[in-house]
Write a structure and sequence with these properties.
The complex is a heterodimer of chains A (about 325) and B (about 375). Chain A folds into three domains: about 80 residues, Acyl-CoA dehydrogenase/oxidase, N-terminal domain (Butyryl-Coa Dehydrogenase, subunit A, domain 1), CATH 1.10.540.10; about 70 residues, no CATH class; about 140 residues, Butyryl-CoA Dehydrogenase, subunit A, domain 3, CATH 1.20.140. Chain A has about 325 residues and is an alpha+beta fold. In chain A, the strands form two sheets. Chain A has a seven-stranded mixed sheet with strand order 5-6-2-1-3-4-7. A two-stranded antiparallel sheet of chain A has the order 8-9. Chain B has about 375 residues and is α+β, with helices and mostly antiparallel strands. In chain B, the strands form two sheets. Chain B has a four-stranded mixed sheet, covered by helices on one side. Chain B has three domains: about 110 residues, Acyl-CoA dehydrogenase/oxidase, N-terminal domain (Butyryl-Coa Dehydrogenase, subunit A, domain 1), CATH 1.10.540.10; about 110 residues, Butyryl-CoA Dehydrogenase, subunit A, domain 2 (Beta Barrel); about 130 residues, Butyryl-CoA Dehydrogenase, subunit A, domain 3 (Up-down Bundle). Chain B is about 45% helix and about 15% strand. In chain B, helix 4 packs antiparallel against helix 5. The longest helix of chain B has 29 residues. Classes of the chains: A alpha+beta (about 325), B alpha+beta (about 375). Chains A and B meet through helix 6, helix 7, helix 8, helix 10 and helix 11 of A and helix 3, helix 7, helix 8, helix 9 and helix 11 of B.
Chain lengths: ~325, ~375
């Protein structure tokens, strides 16, 4: 992973991705200036063949994007470039019959949409020729279903896993940010004449959150490392499962720690917790991936589970 | 804040892994024990076999019988033993923490006296930290050692010393100077010869009906000068370093592993959707905890002191191994439970309350983590 890329993404987002931008994006306005800046700097090309960058770079930058709740379809662009599709394009989960894609971010702002199915197929939809139906989204992010004619396109067999990993990487960034917000809040807020950080019950909450965030990050790193290996489908399953579990506890405790302040629209916390709740459902929820992993293990039988966990089989 | 690098076990360690598996197949045939708990299964003959294979004190210098191997190689051996449910309790504490403590703080004579027998799998150690009035608040220990002629006279009681009734030695933390403003000062560590020194060792029956832990009573017990480990008064620093060895190993998340294996056997090759999800969810935890634990082993290998990272592994791992039997039980609800599952389940349930107590309670560990987060 190139630290320079990470640092530069962080600089751009610190300047350009603030609460005002998140509010306007959630009201439906596409953040054009920030989107252009990210493309001009080549962040959409990360991980693409001949880009001189790796999947590690791509997912590393998505983790940074998650820290800022970036409302630009960067993950979707990165996948499109891997598949050789250029321009303003988005990605959604494709129905089994290939007739539609759903959960598509910013469909109206894109020329084309790639639908990916959980069995590794991909098709290209032309937005101007499709019916677009907006979808409700927990985080108020732009999502729509796209239905109509489409053409098959070549995609690696793990294309669905790659999109799942994008949600995992975004989530880890958001989890890290939520933990930082909570730590800052308890060290500043005073009640009963001392900061909240001095109360043991709150210290324990933060310890539980830190443990989950650390586990989520480690599981995600493992899936990134196994990109393009045989292990990837199972490591991404483990990551989606583990990060989904972490999301549930960390978001709950973060709100408990922040009290009523964190329940207001004015506070930034909800931009992250609502996205965490939404992202855990996208490209396969925890149970979907747990079943994949579980069926693989059960099929191999009880004497093979330890070799699988320790050395991959 | 906290950092887990992407350490992986080096691929060439697969060779030693194969060797351990072959050994277990041959010397520890199918009637494997029902659980993977490192504190149950005290088997001197088995420990001696491991010693002969060079699998105790693996990272120690050759002059003491050690293997001069890496922490990663030791990791491979210990996780294979635990996963198989091998009886490792006899030598476990000596290998994990007493030996490393003696290597770091012991005198040359002490290293020569104790380490070779440990690596041979013939000498076993117990922990002497807790007391009737000192549990989590370890610095409050009251067992005292007072200078006598050519040595020290010890009075007091140590508690929860696992296997003290069948092990050879105990390393006891005692007060050698009266309590001062600095409550961590004035503590020292001694090697106690459990078989020859004048101590009374009384087993305490645990809730599972096993005699594993003990009370060890000192009444004007004399030990010679050469039993003191390190410097007089330096006991707190030493005991804290000892704890960092013990918090992040595979024994902190594998204790219930045999229940998982038997669950997979019980559901067969075509599990229901819910059973498949349970198996997958638990696998995600095992994979992640193992990687975190290996990251910590890597940090120890390169001379780091990953106190918070180790505490996080223990916090997550102990809670997980404690929840596992109940999750497995729910996955089989409504049907008959096979005898092998039942044995693993019962054995593990009966040991499970200790998972979040031993080696520092969950609450103490959360305090350590909170300190690492800058909250204390």
């Amino acid at each position: 992973m190139e630290q320079m890329l990470i640092d530069s993404a962080e600089r751009i987002l610190r300047d350009g991705c603030d609460k005002a931008l998140l509010d306007s994006a959630e009201a439906g306005e596409f953040p054009q200036a920030l989107a252009s800046l990210l493309i001009d700097n080549g962040f959409d090309q990360l991980g693409a063949p001949d880009s001189g960058t790796s999947g590690d770079d791509a997912y590393g930058v998505l983790r940074v994007a998650g820290r800022f709740a970036l409302p630009v379809p960067l993950a979707e662009w990165q996948l499109a470039r891997v598949l050789g599709v250029s321009g303003y394009v988005s990605v959604g989960r494709m129905s089994a019959d290939g007739s539609s894609a759903f959960g598509v971010p910013w469909a109206q702002q894109c020329e084309r949409v790639i639908g990916v199915s959980d069995d590794g197929r991909a098709r290209l939809f032309t937005v101007a020729q499709c019916r677009i139906e907006p979808e409700a989204h927990l985080a108020g992010e732009s999502r729509a279903s796209v239905a109509g004619d489409s053409e098959p396109i070549d995609a690696p067999a793990d294309v669905f896993g790659r999109m799942a990993l994008s949600r995992v990487a975004l989530s880890v960034g958001a989890l890290e940010h939520v933990l930082e917000l909570a730590i800052t809040y308890v060290t500043e807020r005073e009640q009963f004449g001392r900061t909240l950080s001095k109360f043991q019950s709150l210290q324990h909450y933060l310890a539980i959150m830190a443990a989950d965030v650390a586990a989520a990050a480690r599981a995600t790193d493992a899936a990134i490392v196994s990109l393009e290996t045989e292990r990837f489908p199972l490591d991404v399953a483990a990551a989606k499962s583990r990060v989904g579990e972490a999301t549930n506890r960390v978001a709950e405790l973060a709100h408990q720690v922040h009290g009523a302040m964190g329940f207001t629209h004015e506070h930034q916390l909800h931009h992250f917790t609502r996205r965490l709740w939404a992202w855990r459902d996208e490209f396969g929820d925890e149970v979907f991936w747990q079943q994949r992993l579980g069926r693989h293990i059960a099929a191999a039988g009880p004497d093979e589970v330890w070799p699988f966990l320790a050395t991959g089989g | 804040m906290m950092q887990y690098d992407r350490a992986e076990l080096p691929a060439h360690h697969d060779e030693i892994r194969r060797e351990v598996r072959a050994f277990l197949k041959q010397s520890f045939p199918p009637e494997r024990r029902a659980n993977s708990d490192f504190t149950s299964g005290h088997n001197p003959a088995f420990s001696e076999q491991l010693g002969n294979k060079g699998w105790i004190g693996m990272t120690w210098p050759a002059r003491y019988g050690g293997g001069e191997k890496t922490f990663f190689e030791r990791y491979v051996v210990t996780e294979e033993l635990l996963a198989a449910g091998a009886p490792v309790s006899a030598h476990w504490i000596a290998d994990r923490q007493s030996g490393p403590l003696l290597l770091r703080y012991g005198s040359q004579a002490q290293r020569e006296r104790y380490l070779p027998d440990i690596t041979a799998g013939k000498s076993y150690f117990s922990i002497g930290m807790s007391e009737p009035g000192s549990g989590s608040d370890l610095a409050s220990v009251r067992t005292s050692a007072v200078r006598g002629d050519g040595g020290w006279v010890i009075n007091g009681t140590k508690l929860w010393s696992t296997d003290a009734h069948r092990n050879h030695f105990m390393i006891a933390l005692v007060r050698t100077r009266p309590v001062s403003d600095n409550r961590h000062a004035g503590l020292s560590q001694f090697v106690i010869d459990l078989r020859r020194d004048n101590v009374a060792v009384r087993p305490i029956l645990n809730m599972g009906g096993q005699e594993d832990f003990n009370e060890v009573v000192f009444e004007d017990t004399f030990v010679p000068d050469d039993r003191m480990i390190g410097e007089e008064g330096n006991g707190w620093e030493q005991v804290t370093s000892e704890l960092s060895y013990e918090r992040s190993g595979p024994e902190r998340f594998l204790s219930a592993f045999r229940v998982y294996v038997e669950l997979i056997r019980a559901v067969g090759t075509e599990p229901s959707d819910a059973q498949a999800a349970t198996i997958g969810r638990l696998a995600a935890h095992f994979l992640t905890l193992r990687r975190m634990s290996i990251s910590v082993a890597g940090m120890l290998e390169s001379g780091g002191n990953p106190v918070v990272e180790a505490a996080l592994v223990k916090e997550l791992g102990n809670n997980f191994e404690k929840e596992l039997p109940d999750i497995a039980r729910a996955a089989l609800a409504g049907g008959a439970r096979p005898a092998a599952f039942e044995a693993a389940y019962q054995d593990t349930m009966l040991g499970s309350p200790a998972f979040t107590l031993r080696g520092g309670t969950r609450e103490i560990l959360r305090g350590v983590i909170a300190r690492g987060l800058g909250l204390r």
